[in-house]
């Protein structure tokens, strides 16, 4: 039995500032397009550091309507590819810096929650990357060795230690801290309210159609019913960049899936992480995972992904049904108490992916004073907030915007056509599901 209509996240709607559609000619010192975590974090830091700045935030829908409000609330350290691949591609020093940057990003979100006093179910806890298949154990051992060589504190857990923390029969794990779980929609909406309280203007239901160089200064942003002229612009539009014609390389949409359950018994809930607040992530491709909810339910996600472009509505819905069914079966396989638990919510969200697993955070080639943020590859809850702060500092001319990271770039690598891309994603998902 499903309590909520398919496609409905388990997060409750939150209060938002007024956001009329953009009509006519509008001007601003800074235009931020995209009212997700990245865009709102950028607007928030700009308004904090430069109170007199005229800032307009424009969204195709409303704050938290996209990936930032449809995630599963896993706040943990991860940036880019797995650490062993990061070393091979970028070298030990860059891989170490990337991991430490992701740790700082988690701390920044925790600090932001404290400052905003967000009622978002924030609960500190670790993330356990765990394995129960031979392939997963090999991957885990390889990553654990690299973490040790880099001098990074990521302890290895025995099977007993994994079971003690999250109550599932995995054979080994790695403990990632700091980490937490929270309601991502509540955080996104709280950021929107904080921005509005500082004088930031909001416009909703206004998808960006194109960007043009301005005649005098800054860009011209074209919307269905109006135009916005700004001195500077931040386009936190993720995979929508292609439709707008932004030259930021291949940032493609990937649809991912999640389910939530009814409350468990107190003993089952405590055993599955209710006591520690920890979340478990399976060390296989497309990493299925689960976390506990404040109401004693569980959220599970991962394990399947789809390239949605080009799929008709009926075919895409059939794909979603199969993905939710597999995820439900995976969750029920973890413990006997989950065999009959009610699934109350099933939903999907679209994340931005790149061919090398790295985000794109940088100025847009060919446009003066236009920056792009996107492609967090499923790790946007922490990284998006950090990216927004980085771009805000850059727009204000701060020379100390942090050490340059591999994702501080203007474009992602080019990828093959959609059919090949879909075939690759489908093959990875099939391997992950068979490795359950």
Automatic annotation (TrEMBL):
Organism superkingdom: Bacteria
InterPro entries: FAD-dep_OxRdtase, FAD/NAD-bd_sf
A family per Pfam: DAO
Gene3D superfamilies membership: D-Amino Acid Oxidase, subunit A, domain 2 (3.30.9.10), FAD/NAD(P)-binding domain (3.50.50.60)
SUPFAM superfamilies xrefs: FAD/NAD(P)-binding domain
A GO CC annotation given for this chain: cytoplasm
Protein name: Oxidoreductase
The species this protein was found in: Streptomyces fumanus
């Amino acid at each position: 039995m499903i309590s909520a209509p398919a496609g409905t996240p388990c997060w409750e709607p939150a209060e938002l500032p007024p956001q009329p559609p953009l009509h006519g000619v509008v001007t601003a010192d800074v235009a931020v397009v995209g009212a997700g975590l990245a865009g709102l974090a950028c607007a928030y830091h700009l308004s904090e550091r430069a109170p007199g700045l005229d800032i307009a935030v424009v969204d195709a829908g409303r704050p938290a309507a996209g990936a930032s409000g449809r995630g599963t609330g896993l706040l943990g350290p991860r940036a880019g590819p797995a650490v062993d691949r990061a070393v091979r591609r970028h070298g030990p020093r860059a891989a170490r810096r990337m991991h430490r940057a992701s740790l700082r990003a988690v701390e920044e979100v925790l600090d932001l929650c404290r400052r905003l006093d967000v009622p978002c179910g924030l609960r500190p806890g670790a993330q356990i990357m765990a394995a129960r298949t031979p392939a997963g154990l090999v991957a885990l051992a390889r990553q654990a060795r690299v973490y040790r060589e880099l001098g990074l504190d990521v302890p290895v857990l025995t099977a007993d230690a994994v079971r003690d923390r999250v109550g599932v029969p995995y054979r080994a794990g790695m403990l990632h801290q700091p980490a937490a779980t929270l309601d991502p929609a509540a955080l996104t909406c709280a950021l929107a309210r904080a921005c509005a309280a500082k004088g930031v203007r909001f416009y909703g239901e206004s998808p960006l159609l194109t960007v043009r160089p301005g005649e005098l200064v800054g860009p011209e942003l074209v919307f269905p019913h109006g135009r916005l002229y700004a001195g500077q612009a931040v386009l936190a539009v993720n995979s929508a960049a292609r439709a707008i014609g932004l030259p930021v390389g291949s940032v493609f949409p990937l649809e991912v899936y999640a389910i939530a359950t009814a409350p468990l018994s107190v003993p089952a809930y405590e055993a599955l992480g209710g006591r520690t607040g920890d979340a478990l992530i399976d060390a296989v491709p497309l990493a299925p995972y689960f976390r506990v909810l404040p109401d004693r339910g569980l959220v599970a996600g991962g394990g399947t992904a789809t390239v949605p472009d080009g799929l008709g509505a009926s075919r895409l819905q059939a794909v979603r049904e199969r993905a939710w069914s597999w995820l439900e079966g995976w969750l029920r396989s973890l413990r006997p108490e989950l065999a009959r638990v009610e699934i109350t919510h099933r939903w999907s969200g679209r994340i931005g992916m790149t061919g090398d697993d790295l985000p794109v955070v940088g100025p847009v080639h060919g446009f003066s004073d236009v920056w792009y943020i996107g492609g967090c590859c499923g790790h946007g809850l922490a990284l998006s907030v950090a990216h927004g702060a980085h771009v805000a500092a850059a727009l204000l001319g701060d020379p100390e915007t942090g050490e340059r990271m591999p994702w501080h770039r203007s474009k992602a690598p080019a990828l093959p056509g959609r059919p090949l891309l879909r075939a690759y994603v489908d093959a990875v998902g099939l391997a992950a599901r068979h490795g359950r």
